[in-house]
Amino acid sequence: MPDPPRPTRKVPAMILRTRGLLLSESFLFGASTSAHQTEGGNTNSDWWQLEHGDGPVKEPSGDAADSYHRWHVDMDLLAELGFTDYRFSIEWARIEPAPGRFSRAAIAHYRRMVEGALERGLRPMVTLHHFTVPRWFAEQGGWTADAAVDRFARYVAATAPVIDSGVRHVCTINGPNLVAALGGATGPGTGMPPPAALPVPCRKLTDVLIQAHRRAVAVIKDISPEIRTGWSVANQVHQALPGAEDVTAAYRYPLEDVFLQAARDDDWVGVQAHTRTLVGPDGPLPAPREAERTLSGWEYYPAALGHALRHTARVVGDVPLIVTENGVSTADDTRRIDYTTQALQDLAAAIADGLDIRGYFHRSALDAYEWGSYRPTFGLIAVDLETFLRAPRPSARWLGRIARSGVLPLACP
């Protein structure tokens, strides 16, 4: 199936000469969501069980944004705002609710989402695994079980009706380095921890996730060799303080670089960047005391994206890059615009310097469940959790205009 038509771009020549970088027509410009964070009612997943147990999660996901039923509203808004692409995940726990038993209804649902995106002129990027797994998979050992890779490959094969036509980009696993760092769990329990608190992954679990990714790529290529496959690494933007260069490299390799190296044979690699990690002689440090903090508790650091893109390019070589997540959790939408402006300026500078960057997806399209709390608001679109009313923020209209124009802002000389 051919790509859907893109909105016509009208770009004043003055902007091209003095203030912006013109993107190619094939550049992906959209926003991201994930299934568990937005769909609601994901009762068969391991995270639903975690939310309703005696563990540290005190705020369950519940109905979330009810996007399982309101996905068409979300896509209508994104298309109207001017975005040309939409990254969303499909939920393994819905598609395979019991081992080897596949839900035709769930598969048909996600296929309707793909077709709905195409009908609206949105090119879908589909993520197959975004932290959550079926409850039965977790109970049988999760990613540490001997059969984990085979089980994941079986699920990927079952997604063929969803992705076999009209889907040009598939992400196998979102944030595999976070999954590995958290010991195969799907999240930290009370929201994503600050980068300095992430433990170093064990090598065995890292190897399993790399094997699962490679098996998934092979399965997808059997479904359709035209699909461009990759995975998305959560870049930590490690920055060494004086005298800590070797410590930084030793910490960064198992938490990030080994996953980037595994992408060297892929069609593309995803870059996720939100903040930075300072590293001293004794290891990762908390954010500076004087730093502005986001609602996630992270340092407000819009330069993260530029650093992440350049580091990723150094590690992967000539593999194309796609920004799969970049954004900030804040109650002040002007800070979201300020943050994203610098991120886009750094993105433009990286492209101008010759980096092969094929797309940008903002995190996130909607306010969503942030792994234990609804307090951190990343959304371009606000969601009322009582009525499910969607309300695009000024940042959504601002970023949508940039997406429609196809011109990235340049930093002032």
UniProtKB/TrEMBL annotation:
GO terms for cellular component: cytosol. It comes from the Bacteria. The keyword Hydrolase applies. InterPro entries: GH (IPR017853), GH_1_N_CS (IPR033132), Glyco_hydro_1 (IPR001360). Keywords: Glycosidase, Hydrolase. GO terms for molecular function: beta-glucosidase activity. GO terms for biological process: carbohydrate catabolic process. Pfam families: Glyco_hydro_1. Belongs to the glycosyl hydrolase 1 family. This is Beta-glucosidase.
